[in-house]
Amino acid sequence: MVSYLEFEKPVADLEGQIRELRGLAEQDETVDLVDDIARLETKSSAILESLYAKLSPWEKTQVARHPDRPHFIDYQKAMIEDFTPLAGDRYFGEDHAIFAGFGRFEGRSVAVIGQEKGMNTETRLKHNFGMARPEGYRKAIRIMEMAERFNLPVISLVDTAGAYPGLGAEARGQAEAIARSTEKCLTLEVPMVSVIIGEGGSGGAIAIASANRVYMLEHSIYSVISPEAGASILWRDPARAKDIATSMKITAQDLLQMEIIDGIIPEPLGGAHRGHEAVFSEAKSQISNALKEFENMNGVDIKRERQDKFLAMGRNLS
Fold first, then answer.
1. Cα(191)–Cα(110) distance, rounded to whole angstroms?
2. Which of 86, 90, 100, 302 has the highest Cβ tally under 10 A?
3. β-bridge pairing 98-105 and 108-115
4. Collapsing DSSP states into helix, strand and coil, what is residue 77?
5. How many degrees, rounded to 5, is the angle at CA 235 between CA 232 and CA 237?
6. pLDDT digits (tens, 9 = 90+) for 8-50
7. Sheet strands (E) in 76-120
C-alpha cells in the first residue's frame, strides 16, 4: 500500500473508501459496487493530478524523500546488466553509502556510481542514509580513473541529503575528498551523465554530478544545502525549512530555467514511488540519448564541453 504524504490526505481518504468498498464487494458478491468504486477512483485520480500540478518546493522535497521512492539499487537492477561493484578506496576502507562499479548499459560497458539510502532501518543504517564519508568519494574517484583508462562512459545516480558531517569523516579529509571527486568529474576525458533521482544535497551530490549532462527527475530536488540545515544557519530554527525551500530554487523546474541542469525526466502521476517501471524506462531513455551525443567526440573535446558548461553557469542570470 502507498504511504501518503501530508498534502495527499484527500487522496488517502478517497482511496481508503475505495478499499472499504472493495472489501464489501468481496464479502458479498450480490452487492454491486462497481459504479461507486469507479466514481471514487476517477475523483481520486483527478485530485491527485490537481495536487501534483501545483506542488510547492517544500512538497516536492517531501516527494523527493518519499520512503517508497526507487533508490540506486532499484535503478541499477533495472538498467545495468552484469553490474560488478568494487569496494574500498585503497586508503582507509569501504563506504556503503556509495556504490561504484562496472556493468553493461544497453550492451555497452560503463562505469556506474551512486548513493544508496537504504529501504528499511537495517539497510539505512548500513548505508548511512546515503551520506558518504571521504572513503566513499575516494572510491568514486578510483572508479572514474579506471573508466577513463578503459575509455568507458560514466553514469552517476545521485540521491543524498549531503555528505556525512561526522567528526571522523572531517578528520579523514571530507572536504578534500569532495573537492578531488568534483575535480575528477570535471577533468574526465570520457562522457559522464548524471541523474538526480531523489535529493541532490550540496557538495555530497556535486562530487559525483559534475557531468556533461545533468538531469533531474520531475519531483527531485538539487540544492547547495538541505532546507533544514539552511534554516538552522539563517534562523537557528530547522522548523522553518519550508520557508527557505521556497526561496532556494531547488526544484527541477527552477534549475532548468536557470540552465543549471540539462533536462527533466518525467515521473508517473503521483511521483516515482507510484510507478517504478515507468520512471526506470524514462531515465534509461534519457541516459541513452545523452550518451549518443558524445559517440563521435574525442576525449579532449568531451572534457572541454563539460568545463565550458560549468563555467557558463550563472553568467546569464538577471
1. 10
2. 100
3. antiparallel
4. helix
5. 55
6. 899 888 888 888 888 777 776 666 677 777 888 889 889 999 9
7. 80-85, 98-105, 108-115
